[in-house]
Amino acid sequence: MIKRWLSLAVVVSMFAMLIACSGGNGGTSGGNKGGSDAVIDGGADDTATELSYWTFVELHGQLFETMLPKWNKANPDRQIKLNVSVMPYDDMHNKLSIAIQTGVGAPDIADIELGKFPDFLAGTPQLEPLNDVIDPYRDTVVESRINLYTKDGKNYGIDSHVGASVAYYNVELLEQAGIDYTTIETWEDFKQAGIKLYEETGKYMGTADTSALWQLSQLLAQQGSDLTDDNGTPQVNTPEAIRALTMLKDLQDNNVIATIAGGQPDTEEAYGEFNAGNYATAFLPFWFMSRYTNYMGELSGKIALAPIPVLEKGMPRSVGGGGTGTVVTKTAVDVQLAKDFLAFAKLTEDANIEIWNTLGFDPLNMNVWEMEEVTHNPENTFVKYFVNNPFDVLNDIKSEIEMIKSTSASPTINNVLGTITLNEIFEDGRDVTEALNDAQAQIEQELK
Prior knowledge:
About 40% of the residues lie in helices and about 15% in strands. It contains 19 helices and 14 strands. Helix 2 links the parallel strand 2 and strand 3.
């Protein structure tokens, strides 16, 4: 529940899966495969300080592009020009790691995906603590999203969203088989709907993900379980994990779900599959809306949001997923200027409104969730795209948003499950229990 979630002391490290959001375990590049650079002046004059910003999600730069003119207008004596570089996920993180370790060539500001963040906190972090610029906003933002990027009481990253997971249904496709998505409450409901959809259309209800842990984390959270125990020790072969993946395998065996190009819904290859109407449902965090509006335009007016099905009625219907912590490096040309701008661009109320308007994320400032003039603005891109209002669903589940905690073991867990185990289960048909037992053993061995 949200109160428990807000107060959760999150163990430093990772758990994403991917972007927003993510990238690590099948992550998202937000559709960005190549790299790009652009200098945004935001109306600045010749006295402006140029700061560099690296990201692996092109959409993230749009938020800074929106907030930069506002900063320059409000701070005429501290104006900024922003040199934005967008790179592929792995390239950016590898390049950033080398630059920070050597102290040469690092940007002033950078995005670090949640799954990679533990690597940048190892030893003495070469990132600037952000406590002083976060402190004025602690009463208005979801604390656990700040705690994700913390070590020894020092906050090193600022996220952009809560990442509440929801179901995205292709209503037009479902209607072809006489299916009403609003009647789907349990996974058994989902199964029966999927059997009918496949019989009527030959299309699949959803995906069997092989490169990301979105579905597994959602099903574990429903059962009050996790991928690590209270001490952060890996536990991937629990009865809850076996139950979750056995259920998904049963759905695959009944042609309800199927593997997808790219290994999971948040990839360029998968966007094409969804655009073609080959899959009716994706289960991903709130930020996935931006993928629809930017990369799946053919589906405008066809996609509805809803709570994720549960194994048993009464179980929580959402989990926070993904994450990207924006940081300031110790070699920044003007550390305080970079920190002040980062807080202005991501933590102010105006920034949180723009995070929704520009990115389609569920902002950290939950007061914005209640601003109907903002969330129900008929001119908003996301309000216009989706069948129902996204915040109606978000506010319905906000007391049920669980969390899979992050630990230093999480990158290893995600790598083993997302590159080996899920493929063994859904591509090779391996027994779920055997596959998870082997995964547990391999993870323990790699962490020795």
